[in-house]
Amino acid sequence: MTKCMYSQDFDIWEQTNNRILYPGDTTVFMIRILKNYDLHSHQLELIPSSGMKIIEPYLGEIKVAIPKNEKDLIKINFQLYNWLKRDTITQNIHLSREWVL
Length: 101
Fold this sequence. Notes:
Layout: E1 4-6, E2 10-15, E3 26-33, E4 44-47, E5 52-56, E6 59-65, E7 73-82, E8 87-96, H1 97-100
Antiparallel strand pairs: 1-2, 2-3, 3-6, 4-7, 5-6, 7-8
């Protein structure tokens, strides 16, 4: 496991066995949905979407390619279902290439 990013609803980290990545290589990001500690339960659940493999309702993986241009961002998109609001959320994350390399 390498660098990890946290929010109130989920955390994301890069899972790789190969520590040397070059532009154009593919890497895997793991996404874990966190419990809502006020309710002591999960409020969000991952929804199957393009590029995401759901391992459990609260754990998924997304494969992304390392951009060839240093200024390009790595774009990660996934969908969640909010059980409290009964609504679907699209989460967009943009990481710099240096965050991964």
